[in-house]
Write a structure and sequence with these properties.
The protein is of the alpha/beta class. It contains eight helices and ten strands.
Length: 255
Amino acid sequence: MNAHLVAFPREASVEQHPSLLPAIEVTGLGKTYELRPVLRNISFTLKAGGTAALLGANGAGKTTLLRILATLVKPSAGQGTVMGYDVVRDAAALRRLIGYVGHQPHVYDDLTARENLLFFARMYGLAGAAKRTDALLERVGLRAKSRERVRTLSRGQTQRLAIARGILHEPRLLLLDEPDTGLDEEASTLLDELITERAATGGATLLTTHNIAHGLSRGEDTLVLAGGRLTYNGPSRVLSPGDVRELFVARRRER
């Protein structure tokens, strides 16, 4: 097995918070690596059930921000909360409320698609794990591949499995870092449907993508990062792809 994964403690007890609490609330967040600032004074809020696209050029800090919210990296400054839980102090409990799909699928190559989901279901202590697993494999179009080892799957099929892993435990917040990488048009449409379904039941989603037009259409709100700074935070409908690209260029001119 070649996946390196974070364990989710079975005994963690997560209190249910009122649905009016923001899914994400970030204030003055910063991250520095070896004296090099990657994120600078980031502040924003994502409402419960909200969907936002996080856009930015390579190196803008998008992945770092998502990894902080996923409790995988600690911030150097400021504060971040998810459903009222602090991303540093309450990290162990929060991992049961967050689904994270990063650049790597984080599934086990030597297990089948079905065995992977059953393994994660046990980690989360899910009731009815087999039924949930089979329903998700059907939903993401992998039922016919369910008993094949992950190492035999295509890049797109593995990404579908990673998305299924991310929503397996019905997280209150889903963090997607370029989730459409390797997906065909049908799978990309499926991802859009899953995001819409989540929003309808109060699940929030924050996603990054290099496809600016698609990002603007997916998120009701858009955050633009440039040079580690938040240069736009508002509704997607007022932006064009050209506007977003200009925000990238304007920040480079200032540096």
